[in-house]
Design a protein that fits this description.
183 residues, alpha/beta, Collagenase (Catalytic Domain), 5-stranded mixed sheet, two-stranded antiparallel ribbon, 5 helices, binds zinc ion
Length: 183
């Protein structure tokens, strides 16, 4: 089944029966198309740098946004891998819905929970990192009940489905459309 999704001036028109595949937005995003990131850098050091770089680059390369490393003091996002224990999430974007007049502040934290992610492959960690970054770019979860891999996007909430079942660790067309429509 083919879903035809037309993006017109930020409005989304879905033709066909695959509405559940369409992206959803948080109502928050960054205030510019030029977005920078750096590491939150506590005493424990910085883990998984190459995977953070790859994950940000995937959004940079796929969308019309510039998503590059910049000074920590003014970065839009700060990446942070640490253990939050056995709490049910492997990644978290705690301020996804925290913005003023639709715009995020600087220094939004992106968490990777090493309690789980230490046992992941690099590619699986990137599935989590790309997902969490997607939240701050303005996307929320979609497709929680989707089981067909061709319809599973990076904004699927479940790492088991996104990665373990479907090997998705990069933005897909629906994710890209969802970001590009907002900026
Ligand atoms: Zn999520």
């Amino acid at each position: 089944m083919v879903a035809m999704v037309l993006i017109v001036s930020g409005y989304q028109l879905t033709l066909g029966a695959s509405q559940a595949e369409a992206y959803a937005t948080t109502g928050c995003k960054f205030g510019s198309k030029t977005i920078t990131w750096n590491y939150y850098s506590p005493n424990s050091g910085i883990q998984y740098q190459s995977q953070w770089v790859n994950s940000a680059s995937k959004w940079h390369n796929a969308t019309k946004l510039s998503v590059t490393q910049g000074p920590a003091s003014s970065a839009d996002m700060l990446f942070y891998a640490a253990s939050w224990g056995n709490n049910g999430w492997d990644g978290y974007a705690p301020d996804s819905f925290n913005c003023k007049k639709g715009v995020h502040a600087k220094g939004m934290h992106v968490y990777l929970n090493t309690h789980y992610a230490a046992g992941y492959t690099s590619a699986m960690r990137e599935s989590v990192m790309v997902h969490e970054i997607g939240h701050y770019l303005g996307l929320q979860h979609v497709g929680s009940s989707t089981t067909v891999c061709s319809s599973v996007t990076i904004m699927n909430p479940f790492t088991s489905r996104r990665w373990s079942d479907c090997s998705v660790n990069a933005p897909r067309a629906d994710d890209i459309n969802g970001v590009n429509a907002q900026y």
